[in-house]
Amino acid sequence: MKNNLPELVDLPKIDDPRGNLTFIEEERHIPFNIRRVYWIYDVPGGQTRGGHAFREQQEMIVALSGSFDVVIDDGDESRRFHLNRSYFGLYVPNGLWRHMENFSTNAVAMVLSSTFYDERDYIRDFEEFMRCSRDNKS
Ligand code: TYD
After folding, report:
1. The model's pTM
2. Residue of 117, 119, 121 to mutate, ligand 1, most atoms within 8 A of C-beta
């Protein structure tokens, strides 16, 4: 998780006939300190969330319930991750464009974030993202 690539992390899963349990410990399963947790839910069919990049925010996205796709673009190519198990976390480094789509009914997307909410951390314009991405690579 040190090479600035998105990565699907297999989280611990304690199987139990009474119901399964999964947990995340910072700096063990996640390479940053958790400053904020938010979740996206009640997404109407066909809707898209995200659609921006973060300058600093790193995050881990978990499908706590249901399923959805996270599409991540590094400026050169785009990768799609289908999240449908609550024991997988998708680590997303900063500096990548990402959006979420194909939400199932009752899907809940939990996002663990390395930063507090700050609108200045967002790049919401794709052309600006491409310019920043090119500048960072040169
Ligand atoms: P935003 O991150 O733009 O949602 P999406 O990525 O799905 O497009 O957030 C939507 C609104 O919620 C925006 O007005 C900012 C606000 N918001 C907060 O106030 N705190 C938060 O932690 C987050 C994630 C969003």
Report:
1. 0.95
2. 117
